[in-house]
């Protein structure tokens, strides 16, 4: 039965890919509109040294130390960015670019210098993740979805990213109005008594949580792509924020599914033997979607450009 | 001079009970970097008045308004709204920011922007009901923009954008309206529509304060004037404060004598 192989080998990577993509795309919508899309990029880079240091300190590749390490690295990065910005009196974008590239490079350096050959932690893993290896060996077919014994054998990345996605969705839903209001008109939102600074910080923290959870499962390439490509493509499809969110979720799902399938079967169709990286292909598909919407999308012209 | 100052300040303090004073700013000082933009400014806005805040470019007009509202963090200074702290009286204030301060490419419709003014009523998750929509439509009607309710905001002209901002402020149902350059870069029809709405607000017993840049319309549109150039230059009714002497003090050489002569100065 074809279901058996699909559930065991492809269902969990697909779900993890889809959940990661949506979890990043949701906050990405607001980051893109706030012209802070670079923050997603920055976060996904600075988590690397955090994860490496957490591994060096604990000696195990486990979820919690890695999460804590990533979170600590994010905090260090935010403090450094503020310090560089104030001491150097330069704009935040420049400070961000300086800090996150340096921290990422340091992470790569430490990773290469230390003996991580015994465990599955290396530069490639950090970049591409290991989506294809997140298989569900206990599954015997669709009925395993209702079998507690089989379910306990699910890769732990799946429940983690699922919970993250639920949290990100809840945050977006509950704080929809403050997010929208403070993104559109911060000054007005402040006169309404909204804590705009806190809202901006919460958005960055939620983006960081999504980035760390997704990084753990699928690597930093997907994270960077999903923060920007689906929201940016969605913006070109509609002039209403509510619909933009829906489009971005759709594009995230399409990227994840199509990218996974193309990576697994595309090379075979072309006569090659080996599959290519699913994470790389998912990111590529999202980029192609963005390119297509940039050429054919109905809302491409910048309507609100300063006119008078 | 000293006696004049005492009598002037004494008079305003005896006449006005703080709770009757829609907006009272004391000792407001703001600086960007090393340079003070607003220095130790006192502003007293009278009930049911229309006050123009005027002064040359970069004189701190907008900054004073933003600092009074807590949008810009001042070095020093306090704001009292109807005799109370700003935090307790936010619901009585409606603010219309400069049109250029937001990105009009933001993906939203005109009606959605006006509904933003109802945020206090709606709260985090409250549903937008027919009554809310009717209220928003009524506000759009007052500014003559009801036909544009479903338009994407980027499709509007500058004047139309300004009217939508005013409609959002109307939806707030406030007692004190603070506008930052509401007539900047708008067409004549919009200017007329806006001033009619503002005069209507005054007739309803509301109070209006606007940062204004067109000296030729000050006397026609407003009844009180606040003149600023980093420090307060003058404050009072148009007759008292809108004088050529004060104008040359505020604008210095930037305003030619010939220009001052052409203004509709009430008393010189």
* CATH class categorisation of chain A: Mainly Alpha
| Coarse structural class of chain A | mainly alpha
Task: Give the CATH class of chain B.
Answer: Alpha Beta
Note the run of SSEs of chain A as H and E: HHHHHHHHHHHHH
Describe this protein's structure.
The complex is a heterodimer of chains A (308) and B (268). With 308 residues, chain A is mainly alpha-helical. Chain A has one domain: ABC transporter involved in vitamin B12 uptake, BtuC. Chain A has 13 helices and no strands. The N and C termini of chain A lie far apart (66 Å). The radius of gyration of chain B is 19 Å and the shape is globular. In chain B, helix 4 (110-116) packs parallel to helix 7 (158-171), helix 6 (130-142) packs across helix 7 and helix 7 (158-171) runs parallel beside helix 8 (188-203). A six-stranded mixed sheet of chain B has the order 6-7-8-3-9-10, sandwiched between helices. Chain B has one domain (2-100, 169-262): 3-Layer(aba) Sandwich (Rossmann fold), CATH 3.40.50. Chain B is built from twelve helices and ten strands. Chain A binds chain B through residues 33, 174-178, 180-181, 183-185, 187-188, 190-194, 235, 238-241, 243-244, 299, 302-308, and chain B through 66, 69-71, 87, 90, 93-95, 97, 100-109, 112-113, 116, 119-120, 122-125, 152-155, 157-158, 168, 185.
Which descriptors apply to this entry?
heterodimer, A: 308 residues, globular, B: 268 residues, alpha/beta, Rossmann fold, six-stranded mixed sheet, 38% helix
Quick description:
With 308 residues, chain A is mainly alpha-helical.
Write the layout of secondary structure elements.
The complex is a heterodimer of chains A (308) and B (268).
Chain A: H1 2-33, H2 37-58, H3 63-88, H4 92-113, H5 123-128, H6 148-151, H7 157-174, H8 176-184, H9 186-191, H10 196-218, H11 220-235, H12 241-269, H13 278-296
Helix pairs in contact in A: 1-2, 1-7, 1-10, 1-11, 1-12, 2-3, 2-4, 2-10, 2-11, 3-4, 3-10, 7-10, 10-11, 11-12, 11-13, 12-13
Chain B: H1 2-15, E1 23-32, E2 35-45, E3 50-54, H2 61-68, E4 76-81, E5 84-85, H3 86-89, E6 93-96, H4 110-116, H5 119-122, H6 130-142, H7 158-171, E7 176-180, H8 188-203, E8 207-211, H9 218-221, E9 224-229, E10 231-237, H10 238-241, H11 244-251, H12 257-262
Parallel strand pairs in B: 3-8, 3-9, 6-7, 7-8
Antiparallel strand pairs in B: 1-2, 1-4, 4-5, 9-10
Helix pairs in contact in B: 4-7, 6-7, 7-8
